[in-house]
Specification:
By secondary structure, the chain is an alpha+beta fold. 38% of the residues lie in helices and 17% in strands. Helix 1 packs antiparallel against helix 2. The mean pLDDT is 89.
Length: 197
């Protein structure tokens, strides 16, 4: 039997998910990469509708809320791979790697549908596009993304080339955008769900 939650319970559940994501992001920032799957698992029920369950935002009738997006615009004429949510960062002794931007000044407002399902945030070496939804659902369910990263190489401190996986840092940046999007939102007030006692 399906349990139907009332509005205060749903609001509380969404607030708890956001709090958990923030805590997990703190752990990831302390170099605990193992929490990336947990972050993705916490994001999925907020946005993803299935045949068996409605996303928290759908249940709370919050689809009118815009999301913050930090992705660069994809240029189809570009010959390089596209990693829209990350920046290149150099660490002394480690060389170059991709890193989440985590910069509130780069955020633009977009619709939820555009943010979750439509906006391409990675285009791999085969020209396959990946949205936030595709990346987050894949990481949450432990399904490896079939991502061709053959063109993504960076050099370490010794000048050795290696291919880098942009997925963990992309998940971190998606979580950052999500948390920023809801930071000052009064969920009770914004929700179009009428509370029945």
């Amino acid at each position: 039997m399906k349990t139907i939650l009332n509005k205060p319970e749903l609001v509380s559940l969404l607030q708890q998910q956001l709090k958990d994501i923030e805590i997990l992001c703190g752990e990831y920032d302390q170099e605990n990469e193992a929490v990336i799957q947990s972050i993705a698992e916490k994001i999925v029920p907020i946005f993803h509708n299935t045949d068996h369950s409605k996303a928290l935002l759908s249940q709370l009738k919050l689809s009118q809320l815009n999301m913050y997006c930090s992705s660069e615009m994809y240029n189809p004429k570009s010959l390089t791979n596209f990693i829209g949510l990350l920046k290149l960062k150099h660490k002394a002794g480690k060389g170059w790697s991709y890193a989440a931007k985590l910069d509130p000044s780069e955020l633009k407002s977009v619709s939820q549908e555009n943010w979750w399902n439509n906006k391409k945030v990675i285009i791999d070496s085969d020209g396959i596009a990946f949205t936030r939804a595709k990346i987050i659902k894949s990481v949450a369910s432990s399904n490896p993304l079939l991502l061709n990263t053959s063109g993504w190489t960076v050099k370490d401190a010794e000048g050795n080339k290696s291919t880098i996986n942009p997925i963990p840092e992309t998940v971190r940046q998606v979580a950052f955008e999500l948390l920023e999007s809801f930071r000052d939102v009064d969920l009770n007030k914004e929700s179009k769900l009428h509370y029945k006692i």
